[in-house]
Amino acid sequence: MSNIIRTLLGIEDPHIKKLKIMNPVVVKGPLEITGDLDYQPKKCEHCGRKNKKSVIKYGWRDTKVIMPPCMERRGDFTLSRHNFYCKKCGHTFLAQTPFVQKSHTISMKSRLLCLDKLTETVSMKHIASELGISSTSVMRCLRSYAKDIKPHLNYLPAAICMDEIKTTKSSKGKMSFVFMDAMTHELIDILDSRTLHSLERYFCRYTKAAREAVRVIVTDMNYTYPKLAQWVFPNAIVVMDRFHVVNSAVVGFNQTRIRIMKDYAPSNPKYKALKRYWQLLLKPNGHLNYKLWQHHTYLPGNRTENMLVDELLSFSPELDSAYRVLQSIMTAIATKDLELFDSTINDAFDYSEEMERHLKTLRINQNSINNALSTLIPMDR
Known about the structure:
Layout: H1 2-9, E1 16-21, E2 31-37, E3 55-66, E4 75-86, E5 92-94, H2 108-117, H3 124-131, H4 135-144, H5 146-149, E6 159-166, E7 175-181, E8 187-191, H6 196-203, H7 208-212, E9 216-219, H8 224-232, E10 237-240, H9 242-261, H10 269-276, H11 278-282, E11 294-295, E12 302-303, H12 305-313, H13 317-335, H14 338-345, H15 353-364, H16 366-373
């Protein structure tokens, strides 16, 4: 019976013996559990002398240990501890166990369960009611582990990734700031504000040597981060994430395609073809199948994928020009061709309004994009 209770309660300390449930038949109310903590100490906790029959047992003392609910019932655990007396120094001390910290009444299992529940989006009062402890104890438990998750202000990795994430209602804004090590992909910290002033004040807490050690900052097209790098990280270059570069061109092309598609009636085969085969238009031109002939819905006859794309582009010169720009940007990013990318976005050709809007954004961030395409990015510290 004692081993069953030990398994249910998660007690691994072999020194806790004689475990009993005093009211196993009672359905309602807390489980009344008792146990004895008995062992022979190796030394005195006060003077540190080895126990050569100088430390004797000096009675028992009952302590209440708060435990997490067991079988959907709260457990009242009464732990009887041996009190020891040292003949050499005349001090007494209680038997200790890793099941509960010294001078504490909340079990370690309850503390770990409290930390696990703190990761959920629930209030501290709710966690306290579930574990049978006070909300102050929950806050104290969180603060006791704060030093383990607090970032070290004398170190920053050589390459940092910066981005935004959606946050909860308790944050200052709709989006929060997150940054991580670009080499190990380990999360460093999350901030509830992403304004330039807040980020500058946060990173200025780091030592000057730590900020000077940062060589690369990988980010999206947010205008805040290049300014932050200029003010806070003097030796860092801003590298634009290549995904956002391609995505910007894809969004511009899709907006052009949708506008041209809506110029036709929904019953028109051209409308249906542009709506159905949009994925082929985003596919790299070199990956199109030019051998397999097959029938495509809404268009008569058989044709290959590249022939289908050519026919779709023939619907509008604007769509064709936007497609050429998209394919050039995708090729330049894939092959890291700086000349092709620069000539594509700086071409004086009259593109669609949607495509030109996104090309303007790429021109503004051209230096950061060139850093992403360059193979000479310093990644060593």
